Amino acid sequence: MNGQTDCRSKLKEGGISGLKKGWGGFVWMMKIVIPISLFTSVLDWSGLLGRLDFLLKPLMGIFSLPPTAALPLVIGMLSSVYGGLAAMAVLPFSAAQMTLMAVFILMAHSLIQEGIIQGSSGIHPLKATAVRLAAAVVTVLLMVPWVGSSPAMPAAAEGALSAGPAFWEMIRHWAGTTLALTAKIFVIIMVLLTLLELLKSFGWIHPFVRTLGPFLRIMGLDVKVGFLWMTAVIFGLSYGGAIIVEEAKSGHLSRDELEILHLSIGMNHSMVEDPPLFLPLGIHLFWLYVPRLAMAIVTVWLLRLYQRYARRPLPAARET
Description:
- The protein is mainly alpha-helical.
- The chain has one domain.
- The chain contains 15 helices and no strands.
- The protein has helices at 2-46, 48-51, 53-61, 70-78, 81-89, 95-107, 111-119, 125-147, 155-163, 167-201, 205-211, 213-218, 226-250, 255-267, 285-310.
- Helix 5 (81-89) packs antiparallel against helix 6 (95-107) and helix 8 (125-147) runs parallel beside helix 14.
- It is globular.
């Protein structure tokens, strides 16, 4: 009887906490999504992006993306995943183009804020940011032949852009697109955060981390950073940063271990909440997870090889 009561209590506690955090996270996200999506729509309607084609076309062409793709990428790098997502949702891109942009944004977003957080807990912020940017660029370039993207806008989109819709027609289209995206995000974030709070309430997160030992070894990570890795994977660098900072101050981890951890979670954090947000745009779940994980594994093992061999002191020259 006591067991049933305890179980119900945990279900109630976790459910209520999850719904509260889900609603709070949704409201916070909408404060970013709505103004940025409106700004992007107005900017696109004004024709300013078209006038910058000469500047953006060569740069975006490297990624097989149209010039207008620069706006969501820049917004994502400077603000957040939600800002980049909002800009993507109101511009007429193909599924392949959105796939490449989503992967780039997931790997290289909030660079200033998250770089500062990483810099305060064991790695130079410029190094962390440079590796994230380089990894995002390489990952997208490797994906291009597989997703079949091209720098051209979809034919229907080009026709719509050349027609130059009236301002209020643009607003109507923005409102409809944003409302549909908002509804889908609401469902996703409420379900995910409620589930996460239930796992915390029942104390299942720590046992789950312990079972990840083999996977962490594949990732090139030591088991003792497992909890910190899981913190970043679930809560992100911004939310989980305080835990990582405190652990770094405790001195339980070496400088090399912290560097490896940071480079891995720089590419793979908020893995529970962020990738599913792109599903309403028609992006396959495979592309939202696998390329980032693969790049993180390659990067970490290359760093381990560097730490092991490149830093090894040269043997002393023999006396003659």
